[in-house]
Design a protein that fits this description.
By secondary structure, the protein is mostly helical. The protein is about 75% helix and about 0% strand. The protein contains 43 helices and four strands. Helix 10 packs parallel to helix 12. It is globular, with a radius of gyration of 34 Å.
Length: about 950
């Protein structure tokens, strides 16, 4: 579904239009980006939003829309945080959202009087509160984040959220007054309602704040007052009114007023039940979810309250009420309900009721797929099954699938076999085939071929006794035969040889199964070939040539012959073979007459075109212009072979990359990344090829603006690669950070280096790599003028490696600052962290260490400039020192004119770099005598 939408977006950017029309189209693109985020395509959503903002920046009158784009970007990060169970990823997303919203709402913002400021402040307060909750949770777990105590970070975020809610209320009330003057009463009423609602959100914030506060009672009293302020003004017919009562009850409970808390929660069930729950099944789905969330919270709270008093039957009754009410009303359980069930499952497990706990966790895992709670449940389910005596076949099947996804095949095989053994006759008829096939596949993965063959035989017998589904029978029969074939090749024993013959005869005699043993045997031989076994490939080629033209797999055998030729190094023959296959499969006179044969032909067509293109793109042939026609319209021609579609997109990206068609490669990557089907490996490979192609194009581009745009896009693609790849290669990730720094995007560079460092420190990477990551992070912070955070990094780096020129230069710039020279030669003083004497010492050592050959290099000139600038910042230079500085400039030929780009490369070192520093020296020359 996304592909045509993406093409539409691309068309928007390309279409000629006046600025008003273009702004309208770009506004639509922002809505599209938000839609992508709602469907959890976060990377693609951010790419669309960022590219839209870049386009808006080029319009002459687009401030409002550009501001809207920044809000959209912040909301994308906010949604990403809401949809991940990983606390580190959630923290990263929240921090990114906060950064964008603070730019929007901060002092000096061009949007200071914008009517969307209320929205921005509301979003900022919410993400600050959410980040505070995350820090608070880590504080309770006893963790530290960097050099800061998590509780201090939480306290700061909750405090900032409190101030932001107040600012939002003031802004909303002021804007409402303006709408009153304009006689727009509806807008004014809406804004005043939102202003009132801030008391509710402040109450939530204060309750969370109390958990880490030095004075929790003060915060809880503050919460009850804020919630009182809200309920005093709020309409008791609104759902949010009852949400506020729920939070007020929570505050009472935390203050020790347990009975008041219980009474208030019960009153919510009574009053809101009459208003909302009794009619919940008639509400729209979105409203159903909001109502269900409130009631799930209340039922969960009452269950916790009863459990804390030791009344477990009453607690369990509330949990059962939650489940029964949802079932009776036909309303799906949401995230808050899942959280309640997971918490109760933990309680049951601690009480030794593992079976009941497992059933609850399985319910969340099944119904909560795609939610953070569902992810947590899947992990917990495997732990429970592994650690307890679980007797539920359905639970064991879920745990088996989860183990297989994680690569724990031995565990998966055990769970599948255990599930099959516990199934009733009815359950075996429904799920037994899947259980034994799953066991066989898992056992094959760990080389236990005899056991795998036995499992496949059980699956075959079950299917034969049941529905007689031909495709399932053929699948089980093929795997059964291959299992004994592998076993015989492994042992060479007479018994296994005889068993293989016995099985083949049994399968041939089975009605309704078309077994092609010649093809199956050859395919098995091919699967065991090593890549460099030339003679082996030729031997297997001969096996496939023995497959008769009457075989239903004849065309697939022809594809294998071409692949054998490729493996034997006979590449041109392989290309010719692929071309012959594709010509044959297009011949209408050879069109099969039955569905089974047509399906096998389509498989052969799909394999031939894919492997043909792969060969053309190989290093040996390198013919991307020939590969693209082979891949053209692949998905439309072969819709049933969707297992190849994502790999084909990868090959098209590789072809575009080799041809330097970076826009086409990016478009294909966007479509690929937006789909749910591709594996992380495919997305990572595609993104990496796109990134390298963009970087190559950037280096070759002569226009600076275009080059920087390409390099920034390369860094974005490299980040996509890193996310898909699970950050397995921090070195590649850091290259993206370097590129972000090069194009002036230090915030993105900080994100990259911080994540790379996190991975390297976790995995124990070598010292040099960690040092590079710290240098990159410190440099990114310096570029943002965040010297408070970069200064400790540089000090740590200097202590660990005091002789590194790169570290000394970076530390000197951080400690002493620098002069920023723009394109017009104007200078801006950057003060650094203020450690000017330390900076002077470093610059002096760099100059002292310069031998004759090192003079007049860029570093030499920078050290000269740094030495004078540091003394200037310390106010040590007198007017006579200014004359000395002028004399220095004359001696070093700093007064010579600028050189053009063609000439400068021909100059000697002394002349080559001097003009680059001339504006900075002249600035100091003008400033020094005035001190």
């Amino acid at each position: 579904m996304l592909a045509p939408l993406l093409l539409a977006v691309v068309a928007v950017f390309a279409a000629p239009a006046d600025e008003a029309e273009q702004a309208k189209l770009l506004s639509d693109d922002l809505r599209f980006a938000e839609s992508l985020a709602r469907h959890r395509y976060f990377n693609l959503a951010m790419e669309v939003a960022s590219s839209t903002r870049s386009s808006l920046d080029r319009l002459s009158d687009s401030r409002d829309l550009a501001g809207e784009a920044e809000l959209v970007e912040a909301r994308i990060f906010k949604r990403r945080a809401e949809n991940t169970a990983d606390p580190d990823e959630r923290l990263e997303a929240l921090t990114a959202a906060i950064g964008k919203l603070r730019d929007w709402t901060g002092p000096g913002s061009v949007y200071a009087y914008h009517d969307r400021l209320v929205d921005a402040l509301e979003d900022l307060a919410e993400v600050l509160r959410e980040r505070g909750q995350l820090h608070a949770q880590r504080s309770l777990e006893g963790g530290l984040e960097g050099d800061n105590d998590a509780a201090e970070l939480a306290d700061a975020d909750f405090g900032a959220a409190e101030k932001t809610y107040r600012a939002m209320r003031d802004e909303a009330e002021a804007l409402a007054d303006q709408y009153d003057e304009l006689e727009e009463g509806d807008k004014a009423t809406t804004l005043r309602t939102r202003a009132t609602n801030t008391y509710y959100f402040q109450g939530l914030n204060s309750i969370e704040w109390a958990g880490i506060s030095d004075d929790p009672e003060l915060r809880l009293d503050q919460a009850t007052n804020q919630l009182d302020d809200f309920t005093w003004d709020a309409d008791d017919q609104q759902l949010i009114y009852y949400y506020a009562l729920y939070e007020q009850a929570r505050a009472f409970g935390l203050l020790g007023d347990v009975e008041d808390a219980r009474d208030l929660q019960l009153s919510i069930l009574d009053l809101a039940g009459q208003l909302y729950w009794d009619e919940v099944d008639t509400l729209p789905a979105q409203h159903q979810a909001l109502v269900a969330s409130l009631f799930d919270k209340v039922w969960g709270y009452l269950a916790r309250l009863e459990a804390s008093e030791g009344n477990l039957p009453a607690a369990e009754a509330w949990i059962q009420t939650l489940r029964d009410e949802h079932r009776a009303k036909g309303v799906a359980i949401g995230r808050d309900g899942f959280a309640v069930l997971l918490e109760w499952a933990r309680t049951l497990d601690e009480l030794g009721r593992t079976g009941a706990a497992t059933d609850l966790v399985k319910l969340v895992a099944d119904q909560g797929k795609g939610t953070p709670e569902g992810q947590i449940a899947e992990v917990r389910l495997t732990e429970l099954v592994a650690g307890g005596n679980v007797e539920s076949p359905s639970v064991l099947m879920s745990a088996a699938r989860g183990s297989a996804v994680e690569g724990a095949y031995a565990d998966a095989a055990f769970f599948f076999e255990r599930a099959a053994a516990l199934m009733s006759t009815e359950e075996l008829a429904e799920s037994g085939f899947d259980a034994w096939m799953g066991a066989g596949q898992a056992l094959s993965k760990v080389g236990r071929h005899l056991e795998a063959a036995v499992a496949y035989e059980q699956a075959l017998l079950l299917e034969q006794a049941g529905g007689q589904d031909i495709s399932s029978l053929e699948k089980a029969a093929t795997r059964l035969y291959n299992g004994w074939e592998r076993r015989f090749k492994e042992t060479g024993s007479d018994y296994d040889k005889a068993k293989r013959v016995e099985v083949s005869e049994m399968l041939i005699a089975m009605e309704g199964i078309e077994l092609d043993l010649a093809f199956m045997t050859a395919a098995e031989s091919f699967s065991e070939l090593s890549g460099d076994d030339v003679q082996g490939h030729l031997s297997v080629k001969a096996e496939f040539e023995g497959v008769p033209p009457t075989s239903p797999n004849y065309e697939r055998a022809l594809v294998y012959i071409a692949r054998c030729l490729t493996g034997a190094g006979r590449l041109e023959e392989a290309v010719e073979q692929f071309q012959l296959i594709e010509a044959r499969t297009r011949d209408p006179s050879l069109e099969p007459t039955n569905n089974g044969a047509r399906n096998k032909r389509e498989i052969a067509m799909a394999q031939s075109r894919y492997f043909h293109a792969t060969l053309l793109l190989s290093d040996e042939l390198n013919r991307p212009d020939d590969a693209l026609p082979v891949l053209e319209n692949y998905e439309q021609d072969l819709p049933g072979q969707d297992s190849f579609h994502d790999l084909v997109k990868l090959r098209r990206i590789e072809a575009h990359a080799l041809l330097g068609a970076v826009n086409e490669a990016e478009d294909e990557l966007a479509v690929l990344a937006a789909q749910e089907t591709p594996t992380a490996t495919v997305v990572a490979a595609a993104a990496y090829r796109t990134a390298t192609a963009l970087e190559t194009a950037a280096r070759a581009e002569e226009d600076l603006s275009r080059s920087q745009d390409l390099l920034a896009r390369a860094a974005d693609a490299l980040w996509t690669y890193a996310e898909a790849d699970g950050f397995s290669s921090p070195v590649n990730v850091m290259s993206g950070g370097d590129w972000y720094l090069e194009v002036g995007q230090p915030t993105d560079a900080e994100r990259v280096f911080a994540r790379a460092l996190e991975v390297m420190l976790r995995d124990g990477s070598d010292k040099a790599r960690v040092e590079r990551g710290r240098i990159g992070l410190a440099t990114a912070l310096d570029a943002q003028l965040d010297f408070g955070r970069s200064r400790p990094l540089w000090k740590e780096l200097r202590a660990a490696n005091p002789n590194s020129t790169r570290i000394r230069r970076g530390a000197a710039r951080c400690f002493g600052g620098w002069l920023e020279i723009d394109e017009d030669g104007n200078a801006t003083e950057i003060g650094g962290s203020g450690d000017y004497q330390d900076a002077l010492d470093i610059w002096a050592k760099l100059l002292k260490g310069s031998n004759v050959k090192a003079k007049y290099t860029r570093l030499w000139w920078e050290s000269k400039l740094g030495s004078i600038y540091g003394r200037y910042r310390l106010r040590e230079l007198k007017p006579e020192s200014g004359r000395q500085a002028r004399q220095l400039m004359e001696n070093q030929k700093l007064s010579q004119p600028n050189f053009d780009a063609d000439t400068i490369g021909q100059l000697d070192e002394e002349q080559k770099y001097a003009p680059l520093f001339r504006p900075a020296f002249r600035y100091l020359d003008r400033q020094i005598p005035t001190m």
